[in-house]
Design brief:
By secondary structure, this protein is mainly β. 2% of the residues lie in helices and 43% in strands. A hairpin with a 2-residue loop joins β17 and β18. The longest helix has 4 residues.
Length: 250
């Protein structure tokens, strides 16, 4: 049985066939009649790549301190916006304070049919999650400060592409039998995605080097987590992964 995945940035969810991250923040870029976007923007700028090409539909988030933490320890954005066709974005309604501004963009779905023979290759690249100005880690990001009556404009984020990798996997029970009726999800600290599975097998694609969590859930009940596996994806990561789920009483 094939399970179709979903893709989301923070709290947003939409089909994996959609490569844009914009849906989750669509409501955040609508302005009341008579008020221009410039007057409403707390933080604004552009998202571009290293060649200056706009990164359309990048999801841009404003993060603040350690107050907004979800139950998995991930930092939840205060607010966000979607980059337009020219890479421009506008985050509005933020109170005064210091913020870390993060951009997330993907040009390929993070999973595909395990039978796909053309989904992987040495030329595959993907955008890395980037923090203003061009940092790949929150710890080295440049903070953006908003004061009363003064907003922050020109906060341009330069995103980088990096080599991306693939990983094939299987989900088996304690007896080594493929589990065909489970849901698989992939999580990072900035986005999460459902994974396409076929007969207990899956293929993760377009993953830049980094740390990911694979979550196996009881599909019929859609809620009981059966297993979690933290993986580090690098050039030397084995291509095949077997996740074993201990037998559980039902």
């Amino acid at each position: 049985m094939r399970q179709v995945g979903w893709f989301g940035c923070d709290r947003g969810i939409w089909p994996t066939g959609t490569t844009t991250l914009g849906a989750v923040f669509a409501v955040l870029i609508t302005f009341p009649t008579g008020i221009s976007a410039a007057e409403r923007c707390s933080i604004s700028g552009r998202v571009i790549d290293e060649s200056g090409v706009p990164v359309a539909s990048a999801a841009v988030s404003a993060l603040r301190g350690s107050v907004f933490i979800d139950d998995l320890g991930r930092q939840v954005p205060v607010s966000g916006a979607v980059a337009g066709s020219g890479g421009e974005y506008c985050i509005h309604g933020l109170p005064p304070g210091k913020y870390i501004v993060r951009a997330v963009a993907r040009t390929h779905p993070p999973s595909a049919s395990p039978e796909c023979d053309t989904c992987c290759g040495s030329s595959l690249t993907e955008f890395r999650t980037t923090f203003y100005r061009a940092s790949l880690s929150k710890e080295h990001a440049t903070a953006v400060e908003i004061t009363k009556g003064k907003n922050a404009a020109g906060i341009d984020i330069i995103m980088r592409r990096a080599r991306a990798y693939c990983l094939r996997g299987q989900v088996r029970d304690g007896n080594g039998v493929l589990m065909t009726n489970v849901a698989v999800a992939l999580e990072t600290d900035s986005w999460s995605s459902g994974v396409i599975t076929e007969g207990g097998r899956f293929l993760l694609t377009s993953l830049p080097a980094g740390i990911y969590t694979i979550v196996i859930s009881d599909h019929p009940k859609l809620g009981r987590v059966l297993a979690r596996r933290v993986i580090r994806v690098t050039a030397g990561t084995p291509l095949d992964l077997v996740i074993r789920v201990p037998s559980l009483s039902r």
